[in-house]
Design brief:
The protein has two domains: 204 residues, Rossmann fold, CATH 3.40.50; 187 residues, Glycogen Phosphorylase B (Rossmann fold, 3-Layer(aba) Sandwich), CATH 3.40.50. β7, α6 and β8 form a beta-alpha-beta unit. By secondary structure, the protein is α/β, with parallel strands linked by helices. It comes from Novosphingobium jiangmenense. This is Glycosyltransferase, exosortase A system-associated. InterPro entries: Glyco_trans_4-like_N, Glycosyltransferase_grp1, PEP-CTERM/XrtA_GlycosylTrfase.
Length: 408
């Protein structure tokens, strides 16, 4: 049986889009007959992490220690600790391939360990982390840190035996940097339909508790970062309510932009139509999805949003929800306007309001759009099917190892 060791920034039991994608990949690979384990670096900060630790039936190992010290020295210390833990684990468990996931520090640790062990390395890029830092407000495009991160990313891509990206935008950008297309493949974001494929009926008691009335309800469930564009959605609500008086906005989650968004909503002339719920336990997210008719993703136009496809719209489609989103590159890879969702101009509250008002005013079209979107997820973004794309990558690196037989 082929063994794959996944090298990770952090993992379950921490909750994030990163950990949920990791869980889906590892579970789907196990179902295909691969033997998988994960190892995390010092940025895994769950309280009292065990080593090893079994979470949801998956086994994770920890580098241990704390991340700290001066910049560059701190990062190199993290890489060294993670590489040492990989080597120690690999000598016990003997994986056939190291599969590192961004950020580049994980890739660098995997390359360092892989060279010592003679094990091939696959590096998977979920986002360019210099762009992610700009998006969440912790970095500035063009700064020394930005370019240093980009150089490190390029070094890891050069050193890896194969590179996987989550979407065409990232792959195209790497080709433009001069990397050969044959070294690059795509593993798109997906949905575990065992978790998201059976939506709950509308929770009438919760709707009454939140004062949502009969709706329709526009919703956003996720992290409140500035690049998500929730300020544009709040700014669009007066025009939406003017055309659809019963419309309500439900915002579930939290993050760096939350205080500013709450203040903006409180000052809105339609403040009574906007509800903030805060963060909710992961196992209760389905209850809030059940209240929403249209899930809206008004991301700002920038490198991050143009290059990276988000996971949330796919989860919403699987839940049988209408999806509306700004017309940026990452959304266009997932949403066909008028078929699987509705696109509107980014950074434009007026255009957003017009598009959502038109959608809310044509409920006769909703069922057909929902079904097209769910069929799209089932056919193109089901983890159980998509994870098979890894097999030829591993096979090319491990010619003497037999991959699991896959039924047609």
């Amino acid at each position: 049986m082929t063994r794959v060791l996944h090298v990770l920034d952090h993992s379950l039991p921490m909750h994030s889009g990163y950990t949920f994608r990791t869980r889906a990949i590892l579970k789907a690979q196990e179902a295909l007959g691969l033997e998988v384990r994960g190892v995390t670096g010092q940025r895994h900060t769950a309280p009292t992490p065990a080593d090893p630790e079994v979470v949801d039936g998956l086994t994770f190992y920890r580098a241990g220690g704390a991340s700290g010290g001066l910049p560059l020295v701190r990062e190199w210390s993290e890489v060294t600790a993670l590489a040492d833990r990989i080597v120690k684990l690999a000598r016990e468990w003997r994986p056939d391939v190291l599969h590192a996931h961004s950020p580049a520090l994980c890739g660098l640790a995997a390359l360092k360990a892989g060279r010592k062990l003679g094990i091939p390395v696959v590096y998977e890029i979920r986002a360019f982390w210099e762009d992610a830092a700009v998006g969440n407000g912790t970095g500035r495009e063009g700064s020394a840190k930005y370019w240093l991160t980009r150089v490190l990313e390029n070094d890891v891509v050069s050193g890896a035996d194969h590179v996987v990206t989550i979407c065409e935008g990232l792959r195209t950008d790497l080709i433009a940097r001069g990397f050969p297309p044959e070294k690059l493949s795509i593993m798109p974001n997906g949905v575990d339909l065992d978790l998201f494929g059976d939506p709950l009926p509308r929770d009438a008691a919760l709707a009454a508790e939140l004062g949502l009335g009969e709706g329709p309800v526009i919703g956003f469930l996720g992290s409140f970062y500035p690049y998500e564009g929730l300020d544009d959605l709040i700014a669009a609500m007066p025009a939406i309510v003017a055309r659809v008086p019963a419309a309500r906005l439900l915002l579930v989650g939290g993050g760096p932009a939350e205080a500013d968004l709450r203040a903006q909503a409180q000052a809105s002339p339609v403040a009574d139509a906007i509800r903030f719920v805060g963060r909710v336990p992961h196992h209760e997210v389905d209850r809030y999805y059940s209240l929403v008719d249209v899930v809206c993703y008004p991301r700002k136009a920038m490198r991050l949003t143009d290059l990276v496809t988000p996971l949330k719209p796919l989860e919403a489609m699987a839940q049988g929800k209408l999806v509306s989103a700004s017309d940026v590159g990452g959304h266009r890879e997932l949403i066909r306007h008028g078929q699987t969702g509705t696109l509107f101009p980014p950074d434009d509250p007026v255009g957003l309001a017009a598009a959502l008002s038109e959608l809310l005013g044509t409920p006769q079209s909703w069922n057909a759009q929902r079904e097209v979107a769910r069929d799209f997820v089932r056919s193109s973004h089901d983890w159980a099917l998509n994870v098979r794309r890894y097999l030829p990558v591993y096979q090319a690196l491990l010619p003497n190892h037999r991959m699991p037989a896959i039924a047609a």
